[in-house]
Amino acid sequence: MPDTNTANREDAFGLSLQKSNNLVKSLSNDLTIDSYSSNSSSATTTSDSLFTNPQSNQNPNPNPYLTSAAISPDFNGDGKADKVWVNTETGEIKIRLMDGSNTIEEASLGQYDLNSWSYKIGDFNNDGKTDFLLRNNSTGENDIALMDGTRVSSFVKLDTVDAGWNASIGDFNGDSKTDIFWHNDTTGENAMWTMDGTTVVSANVLDTTDAGLTATIVDFDGNGKSDIFWRNTSTGENSVWFMDGAQASKYDLQSQDAGWDYTLGDFNGDYSTDILWRNSSTGENKIWTMNGIFVTESTLNTLSSDWTASIGDFNGDGKTDIFWHNGTTGENTAWLMDGGNVSSEAFLASNNAASKPYLGDYNGDGKTDIYWRDQTNGTDTLWTMDGTRASESAIADSLTSEWYTA
Ligand SMILES: [Ca+2]
Ligand SMILES: [Ca+2]
Ligand SMILES: [Ca+2]
Ligand SMILES: [Ca+2]
């Protein structure tokens, strides 16, 4: 799942999550607690599942991680990545439908108090058009906005979930409709809402996890049902819950010490989530190619801590590639990946070191492009990618510097 670390994006927006010790009020109906079988030997339950084909859309890239409207914003379902913008002074949220470097339509979703409201994207009704989950981290309110282009086709208030709970999106039962996983960072409590459009079909309480674990939504066995990757960022311990709806099969994974951060991708194109590990102090990089709980580790070249990795697929072969930007020198390099090996590496033109790359397929040709945001003066550019070749065009109507994007 390329660049889905929404927590980081929200921090960039100043949409910080407010933590509290409040107890959950509204999750306790329809209580189903799984029997806990730690590290049981029933691995076959996960590897036998068939891959569920996602909602087909107009983007030719074969990999659902790169084309799914639940993961990459595409509000009109034309296979071209769109953009969400947040004005940090007024709280206005705006979406722009993109066609390459051109904005074909723009609309405001209104103004929100960014101290309390945050959003996640998903596709709750599986129409191939990105929707929003809006959450107020102070009051616990939750709203779903189903989108049809720049128009909100349906807006529904869901039950309130107390502050302290964080929502993650995934598709845990493989019906291609986004579900909501809830985790309370303070108490370690977990719950899941299985969704059908704007309806909560079932609300289940899951087992409580130890404090200090971070949940990331993955699909390590590639069966089209999202799984939960748990990492203890202090001890470096890792584990996974393979999900089938609200049923969790739990396994430990090998540890990776606390100095390592991770980015998700699918480097061998088998639709199972892989992990790019980066040690930001030593600059070391490695890939875990995942097949269920089986890890194949490959060591990549070391790059100094000035370099930041982003994930895309620049040659459109369904295998995610790695784009590196040097935040000190402005240098850029792309690694085309074949599993844990770099099949092609090229230095690209340097640009403004402070510019930030936002990856998406803005022209819908199946190859990930790079939107460069210059936050200081709002002169943005698009690099249309074809493998390791980049063609630059100006974004005609860049937004002013108080606007931030994801
Ligand atoms: Ca679009
Ligand atoms: Ca939708
Ligand atoms: Ca590729
Ligand atoms: Ca493209």
UniProtKB/TrEMBL annotation:
Q: Which Gene3D superfamilies match?
A: 2.40.128.340, Integrin alpha, N-terminal (2.130.10.130)
Task: Mark out the compositionally biased spans (Low complexity).
Answer: 37-60
Organism annotation: Anabaena azotica FACHB-119
**Keyword Zinc included in the entry's annotation:** no
- This protein is called VCBS repeat-containing protein
Q: Indicate yes or no for the key word Cell wall biogenesis/degradation.
A: no
Q: Where are the annotated segments for Disordered?
A: 37-72
Q: Which Pfam families does this entry report, sorted A to Z? A: FG-GAP_3
Q: Which UniProt keywords apply?
A: Signal
